[in-house]
Amino acid sequence: MCNGLNTKSFISLLAAGIMFLLPSFSSFASDSNAKDVEFAVFSLNDEIPSLSKSKARMLYKGRTKKLNGSIKIVLVDLPTTSILREDFYNMLLGKSISQMNGYWASLSFSGKGTPPEELNSDDIKDIIEWLNRNPNGIAYAPVSEVPENANILITILQGE
Questions:
Q1: pLDDT at residue 4, as a whole number
Q2: What phi-psi label fits residue 4: left (phi over 0), alpha (psi between -120 and 50 degrees) or beta?
Q3: CB 149 within 8 A of CB 46
């Protein structure tokens, strides 16, 4: 290379530049989608109580599996490839899917938790079918897709 910049230095500089710019691009891409979506964390079980945002965060970080001390909760997750999943975790926890995958991998490895069951699609019909099979199940979906008979536990808005 020229001007005293060897190939190794150039590659390091280029990699640093890409790493610096990447969060900006991914943030821009997800922000444009997330602004249009608000999520509902919901169940079909009317006995499951409403959630505070901190309790919802605890559930989705695997820090609690029970509500009111006795209701054992089962969570379901959308596919890793779902933009809705990316937006949900970004809005609720400020985390990307890859960050959450790493988080769950470390919990699983240490024996402290297991990730939510992952569906094969983000179709609301599949979510409802899973909830029908799991009476203490909790799911999330865009508010506009949640059925009227669902017990909405909390609504997650962009920027909260």
A1: 55
A2: left
A3: no
Q: What is the DSSP string of 104-154?
A: HHHHHHHTS--PPEEPS---HHHHHHHHHH-TTEEEEEEGGGS-TTSEEEE
% the chain with pLDDT above 70: 76
Q: In 10 A of CB 54, how many CB atoms?
A: 8
pTM: 0.75
| Domain extents in the chain | 1-34, 37-156
Q: What are the structure tokens assigned to 8, written together?
A: 């190794």
Residue 75's DSSP bridge partners are 138
**Which pairs count as long-range contacts for 92-95, CB under 8 Å and 24+ apart, including other chains?**
92/39, 92/53, 92/56, 92/57, 92/60, 92/156, 93/57, 93/60, 93/61
Superfamily of domain 37-156: Periplasmic binding protein-like II (3.40.190.10)
C-beta separation of 104 from 85 below 8 A: no
Q: What is the DSSP letter of 60?
A: H
Yes or no: say if 152 and 43 are a contact pair by the CB < 8 Å rule.
Answer: no
Contacts of 88 (CB under 8 A, 6+ apart): 39, 78, 140, 156
